[in-house]
Prior knowledge:
Helicase, Ruva Protein, domain 3, three-stranded antiparallel sheet
Amino acid sequence: MTNISATMVKTLRESTGAGMMDCKAALTESDGDIEMAVDWLRAKGLSKAARKADRVAAEGLVGVAVDGRRGAVVEVNSETDFVARNGQFQTVVKTVAQVAVETGGDVEALRAAPYPGAGKSVGDFITELVGTVGENMSLRRAARLEVGAGVVSAYVHNAVSDGVGRIGVLVALESTGDAEKLTALGRQLAMHIAAAAPLAVSAEDLEPETLKRERAIFAEQARESGKPDNIVEKMVEGRMRKYYEEVVLLSQTFVIDSETKVAQVLEAAAKDVGAPVTVAAFERFVLGEGIERQESDFAAEVAAAAGG
């Protein structure tokens, strides 16, 4: 049997919000497999957080830039929030986003691209800035969206200045309709995505493994009700429909009016812009998503719980 360490309990607790003893039990049941332990807690209704990203953090800024039918979003990390409030750092993040519009979402290509007016690459410029500011920084990730006909719109949540903040969203709309109206619609959709955090545009775009995993969790929950198999299957299908409403963009309720499904918003918009409108893709960058902050030692109670 795998030895369940305090670190393992700590990791699971932070990613789920469940109690320490529940986390230890989950790890014991899953033989130390964190992902299986998360599923075990969810199936038992003990997890308070479905996504690990909700519990992680890092400092820095997310930046967006749009040029008509193209747009880019980047994340540049720093050690402290103090640097994120620095005007020079904000300008750098904006500029890197603008460069990404041209170079695309490959981080290595972006690092190697010329930094405007500096006579050096983006990567070298950031390295030089580290020496100036006295704090470590890194270009972590980037993405670009582009459409042949239509627009790319952007939105920044918790903006500290124009185009930079803690959440950056791009939405690519394919349409031959009025570009100005499309841009306004795209911004509203980007605001929705920032708030609602969909995983995919449509149900067909969801990862098969994700669907398999969710269905298995719902089935386990339904079986614990003691209902017969035919009822369990209906319960699972009902919960899957609810799941789609939570994570699929087109199935979500539009946050702007809290009534209309996003798919219906697009149908109505087609009349206004003069042509059908399709969401080709979106990108949602949350500052620090997937990065764990360095923390002090877990409390003695956790060590006791893991070892007892």
